Amino acid sequence: MKPAPFEYYAPDSIDEALSYLAEFGYDAKVLAGGQSLIPMMNFRLAQPSVIVDVNNIKGLFFIQPNENGGLRIGAMTRHHQVEESKLVADRAPLISETMPQIATVQVRSRGTFGGSVSHADPSAELTAVSVALKGSFLLRSQKKERWVPAHDFFVGLFSSVLEPDEMLIEAKFPALPERSGCAMVEVARRPHDFALVGVAAVVTLTKDNICKNARIVLLSVGEHPMQAQLAEQMLIDTKLTPESLRAAAETAAKSDIDPGGDIHASAEFRRHLASVLTYRALDKAFARARGDG
Amino acid sequence: MKYIGKRIRRNEDPRLLTGQALFVDDVDIPGMLHAAFFRSDYAHARLKSIDVSAARERTGVIAVYTAEDMGDEWKPGPPLVSPPATVENVLFNSRTQPPLVRDKVRHAGEPIAVVVAESRYIAEDAVEDIIVDLEPLPAVVDLEKALEADSTLIHEDLGTNLAAQMAQSKGDYNKAKESAAVVIQKRIIIDRGAAAAMENRGVVAHWDAKSQHLTVWDTTQAPIPIRNGLASRLGLSVSQVRVVAPFLGGGFGPKMMMFYPEEMLIPWLSYKLAKPVKWIEDRRENFFATTQERVQIHDVEMALDNSGRILGICDDFLHDTGAYDPYGLTIPLNTQSHAMGCYDVPNFQSEIKVVFTNKIIATPIRGAGRPQGIYIVERMLDIAAKKLGLDPIEIRKRNFISPDAFPYEHNIIDQAFSPLIFDSGNYVLALDKAASLIGYDQFVKEEQPRLRSEGRHVGIGIVCYVETTGVGPYEGARITVEESGKINVATGVGTQGQGHFTSFAQIVSEQLRVDVRDVNVVTGDSAEFHWGTGTFASRGAVVAGNAIHAAAVVVRHKIFKLASELLNAPEEELELEDGQIRIADIPNMSISLGDLANKANPLRGAVEPGTEPGLEATAYFGPKYGATASGTHAMILEVDTETMMVEIKRYVVVEDCGTVLNPMILEGQIHGGVAMGIGNAFYEKLHYDENGQLLNASLADYLIPTATEVPQIIVGHEETLSPLNPLGAKGAGEAGAIPVPVLFAQALENALPEYDLEILETPLSPNRLFELLREKEKSR
Amino acid sequence: MTNNKNISLSVNKVKYERSVEPRMLLSDFLRHELGLTGTHVGCEHGVCGACSILFDGQPVRSCLMFAVQANGHEILTIEGLGTINNLHPIQESFIEAHGLQCGFCTPGIIMTLVPFLEKNPNPDETEIRHAISGNICRCTGYQNIVEAVKIAAAKMSVVKSGDIAHT
């Protein structure tokens, strides 16, 4: 399974990389970690005629604090760097919790935050996590630069709003409000496989334990990460009980998603798992928000 | 015994651990060319035309061949196993695989053209240049539909998709049924999977025109038959052909299939082009081009009396052989010979129907039909036990072949066409030991009720198996004492990780009393030893091992005879230890084996007529029938009834393979077999669609258990020697995999009593479990 | 090939300069260009782990990298870890525990274990199994590999840290 031939460029700077994307457009693919792209190339499912390898662009590797307690992650930051980062653990514990669940240790050596997000696989944990954390992505081309909220970034299966001449530069995440709790829960056949279903939950409580905010985002249940907005609405401004969590979970499963089936899980099983995992994620997140999780 | 039975470290490990072991893809010959195949995307299609001109013109491409280009030299592979001559009314339609498709594609992945180029990369580019006109035909994928009158035919000239039909029986099942207190009738569907060894297949062929010699490196479990067949196909003398099976990255069965299209073609290409040619299968190809095992559909009946004694079993089944049937009835015959399990079954009847389908050929995968037979009998016993209110252990004990009933004749034939005779066994010992090791009583009486009251779904299972092993026809070995004092052993079987370099050395050391590290074992090279069949059916240690033992005994005799002359002492006064033969009690009257070897091969003097120079012997071993191993597996598992995820909490194996050559190696075989069995039970499934397309042809979607899915396995032993060979040994390579799926069925049912499940299929998965539980909920 | 790139890299502390086609996989480069056949290829889609090597000290799947990407970097393969006469404690432990059978997956597992044991000098069974869950073995059932790792951890706590290769 050898890849088809391609022209290879390894720019040292973002501007140089963008010049190649401007020149080659649809014929070019950005090579980040390669953990998703190279298997597809080896299978010859992808045969880009130009590869722009951005692994030498030092300016894309960073984890920085953002104003007001938020976080910025450079597009080429490796998964293992994010996994080991105390800053991330402090400011975006949902990301830290998620990292060990991403694939295997070897994949995390090379795989990158921006690469995973740009690939827009609805089974990739970081897509759901980015939406759950209200993240935004900086997209840049030779012509322009724009911030796109994660919620608007993913539009379909392996499809984002990235234009052929654009590259993802960084992701930023706002600070989590006080009395917030997060949880990432997934079910996979083997721990490092793509999840059959996964749920990322970020919730915030008032000091009287009323739900102030809830964000529930599911992965592997649609063509892009699915935010369970009806379920969220059921919880906001309410006092939480196991019954209300159960009801929200069922609503998420019944009304917020319309999953497909494949050889690993039928649509019905996915829907069932969505209900189970949404409950578990909310339960965990709220416990953490209360300070006892 | 000093060497046999000891946990001796493996001779081969240092090389494997440091990258100094040769695998087929490591072979590199100057001027070597690389091959890639154009394979059919369709499972069933007529080949209308093929245009390779663009491929031929690509820079770096040396040649492209189609079936047409092969002319008269195009010839399908030979049938490997003919139908049994001793059984009446056997219908067998032999159809074997062609080297390249000539008129019709019969499975997805069947090769239509081969490109030879300067690199594999260029060869794959050229494959994309090839234009093929295929007229798709309806794919035959369902076994029952395949036998319907209006089904599309895979081999049109046959007029049917029935590849074979054969029945065996003993006693009178129908009569037995009349007096039964309980008759259970079930349809059981058993699906297996791919072997998926970590090393894919590969062939490197080097025809050296100047020396008129062909050397082939092949990931085969059967180098000698390959050598013989290649010589024949190419019109060469066998002495002009050497086949080497170097280190192999796992076999598990499919590398025993012989004369794969690539095996026929690559040597032929080298011969034609007078250049070395290499073909290495990639992982995607492995799913389409390497054999696998698939579905059997069983309609089975068991008749019992009211104490749970089996009066008879009737098992009629369909077996999927794929597009061709070179391997004969091997797998289904194994199923038949294991469908009575460990039990004394007086009446038995079974009809096999082998069906062609538009899928890759099915040939033995670890277990080779035995898991299916064991699944049937153990499942039916479980169901009977429930009906009769007996526990699984009790019903088994009531039916075991008694230890004094051996050799036990089943009065049917096995896969080697010999009468199915179990040589020895004492099944209750393994069952009791396994029950004790898993803490069966304590779990059922205390742990399980306690955990259940906490809302947890834990279950326990315990099942028994037999495994026919060590079948003929024969193997051979040649042992030579070298002047260095080291011993050289050559045998025809190959090695795929099961430690022959060490276990065979132990057999030799036991006789010749040298350190195991000083015994050099050569396997799988037809130039070193050219009589034998191969590594399959758990026979390496038994058959090759006993040939080695026999040769070692002769060499030992020669040592004593010559030493007696040289030391001027009667043989009874000599002892052989630590590479020295000496007069007992007079230690300085000794000769090292190396010096003795030197003396045995004089440069002057005379070698007496009727004797041979050197300290060397060749011996063969051909068992009349195979030895039967046995054992018990037990498991405790937990089901999360919300997510349907299953976790194995405890796993116990008690196995009985007679004399154990090296307990460390044996346990490794058990661990690996159980891991494969867990794959077969809950993770691995080849998903074919109605067009014969394999939907999960990658390791991302064909789920092999990793370290987080396989539990710690506690292994206990019983040792009931085999009377069939001097070592008392039975085979053990496949045992770990055999009973795992049926164990899962019992344990899952036990974990979910409120659902009252009756599991009649394998494999399972969380998704399938969800469906089964949902069905039960809906029917309430 | 006209679009070949010149690369310069260090493999097992030896410097190499080569000219390679960009699409050549790092696994093929190591095995066939440099003749370091100890690293094996099992799937070429990043699942089996047999091709795992150390890239600047990190465990990576060499089938998911192009050789050109190794320009200026340091690679360690199984051949660089220890030799028959000078085995690394991990290699020794695999012999003692019967942690390999056919040996095909073994180099990839061992290279994955090198940084793991550096970071986790005293791992428990669960940690070990998770650490090797990205490497498929079809022969051993993993049990003796886990044993080998425990033995290696004990051995290596006696060895000075930082001294990986015994060459």
Describe it for me?
The complex is a heterotrimer of chains A (293), B (780) and C (167). Helices cover 36% and strands 24% of the residues of chain A. Chain A has 12 helices and 14 strands. Chain A has helices spanning 14-24, 37-42, 79-84, 86-91, 93-98, 105-110, 113-119, 125-132, 150-153, 229-235, 242-256, 267-290, and strands at residues 7-9, 28-31, 50-53, 63-66, 70-74, 136-140, 145-149, 154-156, 159-160, 167-173, 180-187, 197-205, 211-219, 226-227. Chain A is globular. Chain B is 28% helix and 26% strand. In chain B, the strands form 7 sheets. A 7-stranded mixed β-sheet of chain B has the order 3-6-1-13-10-11-12. A 7-stranded mixed β-sheet of chain B has the order 4-8-16-15-14-9-30. In chain B, strand 17 (408-413) and strand 18 form a beta hairpin. The mean pLDDT of chain B is 96. With 167 residues, chain C is of the alpha+beta class. Chain C folds into 2 domains: 5-80, Roll (Ubiquitin-like (UB roll)), CATH 3.10.20.30; 89-159, DNA polymerase, domain 1. Chain C is built from 6 helices and 5 strands. Chain C has a 5-stranded mixed β-sheet. In chain C, strand 3 and strand 4 (58-61) form a beta hairpin. Chains in contact: A-B, A-C, B-C. At the B-C interface, helix 1 and helix 18 of B face helix 2, helix 3, helix 4, helix 5 and helix 6 of C.
